[in-house]
Amino acid sequence: MEERKGNSADKTKGNFTLGKFLHTGRELVVEIRASLHTSRGKWGLALFLFGVFIGIHKALAGAGLEEKQNNLFLATVYSTIGLAVLSNLQDFKLLYLLPITRKEFAARQMQKAAWLCIIIFSVITSQFACMSLGMESFWQNVFWKSIPVSISMGAYPLASVKPVRNSEMQGTKMYHLSFWMVSLDFGMAFLNLMFVVDSWNMYAWILPVMNYATCIWAAVYFYRKIALADVYYDEL
Fold first, then answer.
1. Is the CB of residue 159 less than 8 Å from the CB of residue 189?
2. Which of 39, 153, 183, 195 could cysteine-pair with 80, CB 3.0–4.6 Å?
3. Residue 51, class by beta-carbon neighbours within 10 Å (0-12 exposed, 13-18 middle, 19+ buried)?
4. Rounded to 5, what percent of the chain is helix, strand, coil?
5. For residue 152, is it within any domain?
C-alpha cells in the first residue's frame, strides 16, 4: 500500500516534465492535422493565416506607430481565435474516458495552453520584428507585450473548448470558471496591446507588470479549477 502511494505521488510530481510537455506538443500537431479535415478546421486555419498576414503586412507598411499598434491588436485577436478553432476538435468524449487523474488531465490542458502561448508569442514577435523598430524598442515590446499577452491569450482555448460535439457546455461551465476572471485575463492583455511602449521607465511598466501578475494568477486559477472540476469520467 505504501509503495502504491509512493508511486502515485511520483506520478503526480511528474506531470510537468519536459517529456510530457513535448508529448503534448506532438498531440497538438495531430489534433490540428485532424482539424484540417473538417470545414471548421479549414476556417480556423484561414482565420489564423489572415491574422498573421494582416499583422505582418501592416507592420511592413509605412504607417505610424499608433496605427501599427492597432493593426497588431486586430491581427493578434484573429490569429488567436483561428488557433483556438484549429486546436479544438470539440469532441472529447474519449478523452474523458481515459484512465488518468484530474491533476494529470489539468496538467495536459495547461501544457497545451503553453504550446499555444509559444505559437502566439512567435506571431506577435514576428510582427514587431517587421515594424522596423530599433533594437531597444524591439526588446521593450518583446518583454512588455509579446510575453505577457501571449500567456493571457493562450488561455483562450481552455475557456472556449466544448467537451461534446454540438453541446452548449463551454469550458467556462465545464470547469466552473469565473467570467470575471477570464475577462480580466484577456482584458488586461488587450489593454496592454493598445498602448505604445516607448521607454523602460516606471510609467511604461505599469500595464506590462499588471499583465504579468494577471497571467501568473490566471495560470494558477486555471490549473486549480481544472484539477478540481467534475469532469465526465468522474460521473460514470
1. no
2. 153
3. buried
4. 80, 0, 20
5. yes
Residue 85 and residue 3: Cα distance in Å, rounded? 43
Angle between helices 18-35 and 65-87 (to 10 degrees): 90
Residue 37 identity (one-letter amino acid): H
Burial 139-157 (b: 16+ CB within 10 A, else e): ebbbebbbbbbbbbbbbbb
Does residue 27 sit within a domain? yes
| Locus of grid cell 516534465 | 17
Q: How many domains does the chain have?
A: 1
Under 8 Å between Cβ of 192 and 221? no
pLDDT tens-digit map of 44-86:
899 999 999 888 887 887 667 667 777 888 888 899 989 988 8
Residue 236 has pLDDT above 50, yes or no: no
- Distance, in Å, from the CA atom of 112 to the CA atom of 106, rounded to the nearest integer, reads 10
Q: With 0.70 as the threshold, say if the pTM is over it.
A: yes
Instruction: Specify if 59 maps to a domain.
Output: yes
C-alpha cell belonging to residue 145: 507585450
Half-sphere exposure of 195 (CA within 13 A, CB side): 17
CA 33 to chain centroid: 18
The Cα 31–Cα 157 span in angstroms is: 13
| Residue 6 counted as domain residue | no
Q: What DSSP assignment string belongs to 161-191?
A: --SSTT-S--HHHHTT--HHHHHHHHHHHHH
* Least confidently predicted of 40-54, 96-110, 138-152, 216-230: 96-110
